[in-house]
């Protein structure tokens, strides 16, 4: 199951970026499972990686290379079918070998090649299958390769995910295009959220990193399917500079603001696409918490609701169960919460206030509010001016089925 | 589904305690849904209540009465079928009215009557149905009433839960008997964990409270089905003093230690019984974390594992999915965790070490270890001398079914 549309939007080429998607037969013969992304010389690279202490070998190597190269990148090498996680020293060697092979054939420094893997945990990466297809990948690079790459990085995703915008700053037009994969915050066997975003704008490395960190904080870090965090999560933002502008050195400049807005739009769209394709998802749920003392307490309430199995099973049943919502809000750990001031809305319907069912509320209103595929749960804390939103899905039989039966 | 035995053990009467279980027809005609527990004059009462900010009306009133009476209690009045939660001012009045009725008929101070409710959230308590049966309850009090009361406090529990021990201190014999209900940490419509434990030992109020707090910390607070916390949770410990000892004034005395040990045994048994009867439970899982720097970090790891939907669905599938266990450990938020030192065991089988599958491990061993109903997941952090255990269940189709279909 999944919610929303299956259609991949048109993805604009990004000057300075070429992509190739080839088949290495890592897990299934014939499956296009290796993606190579090339960035023009001089491209700056921002990146965020999983915070899980058990990070996969490619994450360790990608982080090392990225830092050693001074946050430049010439090639991103992505494989599906095997996460190269829980694979010890041999796994690290495999990740390094694949980068060295790209570097040798492309004539670049190995440290400018970053590896990414997604798929089954705990099996050694068949690195020779990957190195064998690198010549084909290098020969097949094209600036039109975004849509194929969006499909090539999928694991158990039911559809490719991408977003592309054109934006203008100081009279110059830029492109920002991104793809992502993942059908949960974690797919621990078929692990991982991956995101690759590129622009032709020239941006200084530190500014680019800040822009990515800001965008991830309100996009990929605001979605949850099951609360689990992958060992392989990564999101990369490339700035090729092919547009010819002077490198952006200030996020507060008109160019910086334009970049930030475009990046936010692309990252939020990609992040929401992960939730819409969430494991067993039959609902797309926005949990919006307003009136908090600060953003963090709004997020605490929002994530407590979004992670509650009882709320999620009620959502699956389209049951306007305000008691479960109040109970989740009440255990979110807020200091001195005055429950009599809390209001809870389903879409525009006030369902609970003063710690009880709202006087105006009827069960028919709640049932009608729960019927659509897209639902907004809004909590008004009425104790401050901060707000925050997260996006999540319901918990269905299919979630249990997918995750219980995956290895059997 | 449920794990373990259905049989209620023999529950010894506690001198000074009488119980009655009667039918008020709160939700279903004929269902025995009201329990009255009488404690002899002079009984001291310890109590712990839900930390959920949205606490139910009876919790508010019970806490008020308990404090106002100087931590004495003469009557506990429990109803099922209606949680009297999310019911506002009228709900508070209903709880007070029921206590006043008991007090008037029994000739005691209303503040020595504590009310407890469990059942559907958000519907007003039909208090007149309860007050109507109080004369019958008072007339039916008997010291043999524990087993009936264990059944009388059930909601969607599939079986009654009780535990009873006799213990000796300084040559004197004492009895400690308890009952509990709940098939999850929360049943948000059929809400609540409730526990009632009594002894004939005389114990000073502050000592009794400390003994209960200590026991709850390692029993009821160590179990989780779904991570949700009820609006109605409560656990009460009564000490009637009918054994005739001088009131215990020191938990470190031989009598205090004997009380602590007996209470721990009873509370752990009652708490584990909740998990064994957990919603949709097909496994009883002990998550034991050793080698931590302090108890809290062991608990953080244990609860992260116990709450992970991905671990829980793997348990349902009897899948020895060590990758999901490592991923859960890795996101538990431990500072400077050296993943290469972490070992993970299923029962006695080492399944993961050095951040990978253990060299000695075979899939056959894992499948064999996962086969029994009772499973121990043991994590060795190898960075300190602290340890902690929690108990949980798997996530099954039935969990989704029970929680998705409850109101439909």
From TrEMBL, chains A, B:
Catalytic reactions on record: N(2)-acetyl-L-ornithine + L-glutamate = N-acetyl-L-glutamate + L-ornithine; L-glutamate + acetyl-CoA = N-acetyl-L-glutamate + CoA + H(+)
Enzyme Commission number: 2.3.1.35, 2.3.1.1
Site residues by UniProt (Involved in the stabilization of negative charge on the oxyanion by the formation of the oxyanion hole): 118-119
InterPro entries linked: Arg_biosynth_ArgJ, ArgJ-like_dom_sf, ArgJ_beta_C
Binding sites annotated in the UniProt record for substrate: 155, 181, 192, 279, 403, 408
UniProt xrefs under Pfam families: ArgJ (PF01960)
Active site: 192
Pathway: Amino-acid biosynthesis; L-arginine biosynthesis; N(2)-acetyl-L-ornithine from L-glutamate: step 1/4; Amino-acid biosynthesis; L-arginine biosynthesis; L-ornithine and N-acetyl-L-glutamate from L-glutamate and N(2)-acetyl-L-ornithine (cyclic): step 1/1
Keyword set, alphabetical order: Acyltransferase, Amino-acid biosynthesis, Arginine biosynthesis, Autocatalytic cleavage, Cytoplasm, Multifunctional enzyme, Transferase
One GO molecular-function entry: L-glutamate N-acetyltransferase activity, acting on acetyl-L-ornithine as donor
GO aspect biological process, one term: L-arginine biosynthetic process
Annotated site, Cleavage, chain positions: 191-192
Compartmental location: Cytoplasm
One Gene Ontology cellular component: cytoplasm
Class of the enzyme per the UniProt entry, highest EC level: transferase
Keyword Transferase: yes
HAMAP family, alphabetized: ArgJ
Cross-referenced PANTHER family: ARGININE BIOSYNTHESIS BIFUNCTIONAL PROTEIN ARGJ (PTHR23100), ARGININE BIOSYNTHESIS BIFUNCTIONAL PROTEIN ARGJ, MITOCHONDRIAL (PTHR23100:SF0)
Function: Catalyzes two activities which are involved in the cyclic version of arginine biosynthesis: the synthesis of N-acetylglutamate from glutamate and acetyl-CoA as the acetyl donor, and of ornithine by transacetylation between N(2)-acetylornithine and glutamate.
Subunit structure: Heterotetramer of two alpha and two beta chains.
Family as reported in the entry's similarity comment: Belongs to the ArgJ family.
Protein name: Arginine biosynthesis bifunctional protein ArgJ
Native species: Parahaliea maris
């Amino acid at each position: 199951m999944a919610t929303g549309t299956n259609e991949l939007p048109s993805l604009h080429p990004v000057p300075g970026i070429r992509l190739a998607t080839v088949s290495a037969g890592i897990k299934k013969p014939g499956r296009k499972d290796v993606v190579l992304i090339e960035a023009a010389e001089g491209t700056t690279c921002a990146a965020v990686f999983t915070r899980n202490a058990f990070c996969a070998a490619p994450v360790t190597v990608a982080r090392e290379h990225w830092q050693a190269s001074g946050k430049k990148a010439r090639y991103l090498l992505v494989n599906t079918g095997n996460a190269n996680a829980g694979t010890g020293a041999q796994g690290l060697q495999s990740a390094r070998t694949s980068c060295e092979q790209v570097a040798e054939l492309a004539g670049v420094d190995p440290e400018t090649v970053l590896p990414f893997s997604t798929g089954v945990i705990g099996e050694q990466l068949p690195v020779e299958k990957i190195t064998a297809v690198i010549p084909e990948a290098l020969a097949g690079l094209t600036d039109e390769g975004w849509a194929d790459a969006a499909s090539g990085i999928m694991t158990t995703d039911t559809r490719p995910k991408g977003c592309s915008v054109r934006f203008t700053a100081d009279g110059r037009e830029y492109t920002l295009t991104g793809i992502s994969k993942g059908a949960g915050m974690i797919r621990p066997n078929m692990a991982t959220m991956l995101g690759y975003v590129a622009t032709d704008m020239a941006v200084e490395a530190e500014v680019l990193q800040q822009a990515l960190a800001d965008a991830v904080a309100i996009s990929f870090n605001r979605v949850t399917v099951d609360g689990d965090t992958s060992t392989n999560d990564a999101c990369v933002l490339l700035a090729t500079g092919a547009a010819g502008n002077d490198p952006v050195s200030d996020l507060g400049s008109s160019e910086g603001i334009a970049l930030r807005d475009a990046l936010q739009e692309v990252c939020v769209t990609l992040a929401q696409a992960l939730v819409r394709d969430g494991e067993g998802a039959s609902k797309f749920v926005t949990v919006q918490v307003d009136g908090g003392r600060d953003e963090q307490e709004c997020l605490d309430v929002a994530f407590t609701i979004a992670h509650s199995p009882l709320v999620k099973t009620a959502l699956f049943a389209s049951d306007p169960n305000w008691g479960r919502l109040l109970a989740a809000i009440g255990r979110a750990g807020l200091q001195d919460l005055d429950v009599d001031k809390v209001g809870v809305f389903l879409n525009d319907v006030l369902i609970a206030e003063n710690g009880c069912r709202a006087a105006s509320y009827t069960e028919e209103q709640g049932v009608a509010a729960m019927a659509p595929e897209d639902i907004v749960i809004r909590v008004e804390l009425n104790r401050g001016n901060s707000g925050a939103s997260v996006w999540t899905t319901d918990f269905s039989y299919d979630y249990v089925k997918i995750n219980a039966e995956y290895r059997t």
